Protein: Diaminopimelate decarboxylase
Organism: Bizionia argentinensis JUB59
Amino acid sequence: MTDFLVTNKMKKKDFIQHRTPFYSYDLKLLKETLEEAKSAAKKYDYHIHYALKANSNDRILKIIHEKEFGADCVSGNEVKKALEIGFPSSKIAFAGVGKSDEEILIGLANDIFAFNCESIEEIDVINQLAKGQNKMARIALRLNPNVDANTHKYITTGLEENKFGINSWELNNLIDRLPSWANIELTGLHFHIGSQITSMTPFKNLCIRVNEFNTWFRERNIHIQHLNLGGGLGIDYHEPEKNPIPDFELFFGVFNQFLQPFSHQEIHFELGRSLVGNCGSLNSRVLYIKKGIKTNFAILDAGMTELLRPAIYQAYHFIENVTSKSENKEFYDVVGPICESSDCFGKKIELKETKRGDYIKIHSTGAYGEVMSSKYNLREQNPVFYIE
Ligand SMILES: Cc1ncc(COP(=O)(O)O)c(C=O)c1O
Ligand SMILES: N[C@@H](CCCC[NH3+])C(=O)O
């Protein structure tokens, strides 16, 4: 998205002046969220790496960098972007189940904090490439803890059936090979069980498994310097105005209570959604109201090309008609203009009586919104508003 606009206060007239659809970001809320996360983590000396995949908009990244978070990247381009914004390479972790040789070389050239490795073959390749560059590569092993995150199946990552992480039965083989990897330094263990997790129970279960793995390595005289517990903390998509900031105290408190690190070990997290999710909104206009057999369709000028989450995870976002003056409420299937039946933001959504031209705000789109947008149907690039 190319065209960047800045406004001090989003007023109705601003909506009306500007072409929809567009994303807007509440930078004040972003800063408050970052501050809360930071102070909750500081209590236990925990380190937070921001997961760039959630939102890699430059202005958002600059603020996160200013607040001294580290970066969690999943592609060579994300590593480059983090460096360009100013994140120090000593705070950049590079994860991902399929890193290409070119991407690994970017990480090596910049001496990043760690490669989070997901297979024995990947470690082999990193070792060879590091040897070629005469470098030592620091790695963390992404282990599959087989813990159910109880979230949508497409955003669960920590079960043995998922493609992510090294399974426990491979560990004996892996540590047998460790001495042969002369250009690898094993520094950490990494875990990530999934995203949009709203119950603390999966995190408690994760801690129990991490303690077991950590002990297993210690018993084999392998000294692990950092434990990376991943991200996954969810946000309140249903009542984002009531609960704009997730309960970071509760989240980190669970790890403080159940995780048993050895004394020298650093504890890292890679949070995405919980830091940026609620500061973003997608703003759009109703193009048409159409009577279906069982329902009314409110057809918006925003579609799955701007916000993919409802189409691929049946994700719920709170949708609000911000300009209707009507006292009446009606149910609508809120859909987009894209040539796909799954281009639907929600079925049976209760809105104030809605007509052509009304402005519709789709809340909590700061994470996995703008970054997942596409040009499908040759859609226009949209402007972005930043609200201080
Ligand atoms: C390995 C890894 N780390 C961190 C994250 C960030 O997760 P979240 O946005 O749920 O905090 C993800 C995304 O699920 C991930 O796959
Ligand atoms: N993109 C997903 C989450 C995936 C997180 C990355 N592993 C979402 O919108 O909820």
User: Anything to note?
Assistant: Residues 4-23+278-387 form a domain with the Lyase, Ornithine Decarboxylase; Chain A, domain 1 fold (CATH 2.40.37.10).
